[in-house]
Every structure is written in structure tokens, then in C-alpha cells.
Design goal:
alpha+beta, 4 strands, 288 residues, 10 helices, globular
């Protein structure tokens, strides 16, 4: 059974096909685990439709990620910071708006300026994609200097180490997990980088456009780009030992040096509790 996860505030969320759990290190130094039974939107008929399942999986992950962050914030920070549905909706809207501004509007504006001096629309679209990747890298690098974000990156590393331990069939212990890599090929960071690269390929064939049309077309094609990227992740995971798959995932693995940090043993303990909980919900008894 394949599992995946996400670092949250002082904790880790782990997800299986029919459940997810959120384990958080509390202020009293204990570990509180929240368990949920839930089916992924891609488990039904949608999961059999290439491209569409990728976009739906992205939406599903975003919604679940916000819920997990809210749980961890409430558990670690107390009831007074619990977010209402209105707060969550506002936070998601702000996040999406910022993402569109940074990764679509800004690169599109640069491309529109370049059109005045570069005749090749194909080259302009390629340069737009490179600007988008540059903004993405600067964004991640800047965040790595924030103390609280570095803590999240450490839990991100713990998540990967424990998933590797499970995938190797080893007992889920700190000693086993700490030896594993903090870089994982199925990481969401790798997915985002593949999205950036695929967007270059897709957008490059659109030709010369006005600024408004450039922005609208990029937003409209997000489902297609996400879907193609998802299928690439599936293929590289299936054929992960091939040279081509290793080549495709290598930039994403390198990028994880920015988005993960070496975790402490107590952070690995939290990730282990998250994995054990989700395996228990999935009916997997041998969890080490």
C-alpha cells in the first residue's frame, strides 16, 4: 500500500487510500494523533481517467492539507487559534490569489515586455517559463530563512525518512528511519517543479498573445498541466529504477535540499506515530 504525507505545524499528516492521520507534538511534549476515515476523490471512476485524475488529486490534496494544518495549529497553539470555515476559505483565496500573482501574472507581464524586442513567440514563452521557475526558487529560498518554516521543513524531512522506512519493510523505529534519505521522489515539491517544466512545454505552443489572453490561458490550462504532471509522477514511480525516471526526478530531489531539513529524533517519533496511525486505519497490522 502506498502512503504519502505532508509536514504541518509541529507535526506530520499521513494519508492512505481510505484514511489520514495528523500527529502533533503538543506544548506539553506529548504526541497527539487525530485519525480520520476518508476516501480520496480519485478512488472512484475519476481515478481511472488520465489527466483529470491528476487535477482532482491536486484539489483533494489542497483541501486535505488545509484541514491538516488547521488541526495542527489548533492542537499545538490551543483552541483560541482555531479557524472557522470562513477563515479557511479566506486563507485559501488569499493563497490562490498570491500564487496567481507570483507565478502567472508576473511572468506573463515580463513575457509581454519581451515581446517588444524578441520576434519569436516560442522563445518568449520559454523565457516566461524560466522566469516562473526563477520566482519559484526565490520564493522557496526566502522562506527557508524563517525559523518556523525551518521547523516545518525538518518535519518534512522526518516524513520522508519514515515513509522510506515503511517502504523498505523495516520496523518503524527512530534508529531505522534516521538512516534513510530526507529526499523522496514522490514529494509535493518535486511535483510542483514538474508542473513548472510541463507548463513551459504546454504554454510554448500558444504563440504570441496579449497580456490578458496570456494570463487567462495560463489559468485555464492549469488542470491540463497538473494532469500531465501527475501522470509523469505515476510513470516515474512505476519505473523508478530506469535511467529516464531517475533523470526526470533528479531536479525535484535536488530542490528538496531547500524544502527539507535533517529532523531531530523527537520529530521522527511524531512522523512514526502518524504512519502507524494511518496504517492501523487501513488495516495493516505489521507496522513495526
Amino acid at each position: 500500500m502506498q502512503i504519502g504525507g505532508q509536514a504541518v505545524i509541529e507535526g506530520v499528516m499521513m494519508r492512505g487510500p481510505n484514511s489520514f492521520s495528523v500527529a502533533v507534538r503538543t506544548q506539553s511534549n506529548g504526541v497527539k494523533v487525530h485519525k480520520f476515515n476518508t476516501k480520496s476523490i480519485t478512488n472512484g471512476k475519476i481515478g481511472k481517467i488520465p489527466i483529470l485524475r491528476g487535477f482532482m488529486a491536486l484539489i483533494d490534496s489542497l483541501v486535505l492539507g488545509i484541514k491538516a494544518l488547521n488541526i495542527s495549529a489548533e492542537e499545538y497553539g490551543g483552541e483560541e487559534i482555531k479557524l472557522s470555515n470562513k477563515d479557511i476559505f479566506f486563507a485559501m483565496a488569499m493563497g490562490i490569489g498570491l500564487g496567481i500573482l507570483l507565478f502567472i501574472v508576473f511572468p506573463a507581464s515580463i513575457a509581454r515586455i519581451l515581446q517588444n524586442s524578441i520576434q519569436s513567440a516560442f522563445l518568449v514563452n520559454i523565457l516566461e517559463g524560466l522566469v516562473r521557475i526563477g520566482v519559484f526558487l526565490i520564493y522557496l529560498y526566502s522562506f527557508s530563512f524563517i525559523k518556523d518554516i525551518r521547523r516545518v521543513f525538518e518535519y518534512h524531512g522526518a516524513e520522508h525518512k519514515v515513509i522510506f522506512t515503511y517502504e523498505k519493510g523495516e520496523p518503524l523505529t527512530v534508529d531505522n528511519a534516521i538512516k534513510n534519505s530526507r529526499l523522496h521522489p514522490r514529494c509535493g515539491t518535486s511535483f510542483l517543479l514538474i508542473v513548472m517544466v510541463v507548463s513551459i512545454l504546454v504554454f510554448s505552443i500558444l504563440g504570441k498573445q496579449t497580456l490578458l489572453l496570456r494570463i487567462v490561458s495560463r489559468i485555464a490550462l492549469i488542470p491540463l498541466v497538473a494532469g500531465i504532471s501527475y501522470e509523469m509522477i505515476r510513470l516515474t514511480s512505476k519505473y523508478r529504477d530506469s535511467k529516464l525516471a531517475k533523470f526526470i526526478v533528479s531536479p525535484g530531489l535536488a530542490l528538496q535540499y531547500l524544502t527539507t531539513r535533517e529532523p531531530t529524533p523527537d520529530q521522527i517519533e511524531v512522523a512514526i506515530e502518524a504512519v502507524k496511525s494511518v496504517l492501523s486505519l487501513e488495516g495493516v497490522s505489521d507496522v513495526g
